[in-house]
Structures are given as C-alpha cells and as structure tokens.
Amino acid sequence: MVAKERHAALISMCAERDVIPLEDIAKKVDLPLGEELEEFLIAALRSDEIKATIDERAGILHVTSYLEPKFGDDQWKQLSQTIDAMLERIAKASEYIEECIEQCRDSTLDECEESEEVEDDEILYEENSD
Hints:
By secondary structure, this protein is of the alpha+beta class. It has helices spanning 3-16, 22-29, 35-46, 73-129; strands at 19-21, 50-55, 60-66.
C-alpha cells in the first residue's frame, strides 16, 4: 500500500468509529504491529488531519476528530482517467472472451460433426457386419 492510500484508509476508519484497535489499523494499512505502525500513526497525527491519541497499553487509537479528505479537480481528473482506462481494459477483455466463446462453439461444432461422422461410420460398419 502507498502512503497516501494508507492515510486515506486510516481516515476512513476514523470516520467509522472513535476507538480503533491498533491491530485493525495494522490489517487495514498492511503494516505489522509495532514500530512501523507507530511511525505511520505518528506521521498521520502530525498531518493535522487526524486528532487522536495512541494508547499502546490497550492497543487502541482514540480518535477525537478528523478532517474529511478533499476531492479537488486534480483528483476528479485522475479518477476520470482511471475509469476510462479500466473501461477500455474491460472492453478488450469482453472482446477476448467473446472470441474465446466463438472458438469454443466452433470447435464444439466441429467435434460434434466429427463424432457424428464416427457414429455414422460405426453404424454402417455394424450394419455391414450383420
């Protein structure tokens, strides 16, 4: 996880509850409990976007306030570009899947025709054997 994503994840957790177990934060931001998580939390608290205290003994973050993240023009533009790129990849994947389905249908039809020919040959052979 990138630092900004971790920070945003922490803010979203603060929006959900006032008391957050450090273990939950560690899982959410993909950091091990201990020094790395502590450094992350200290940096987050220095940003002034989150007001909280860390209770290491209880393993809890007590949230007193937080600032909602701002979503400005740059973020909307980036989101739009990301969505456009995703839609393009989805369209390509859809085309590929449809091609695969057609190939499967064609090969299944060919296999069916071949098996019908074999069955027809077997029937002719059995009729001629009698």
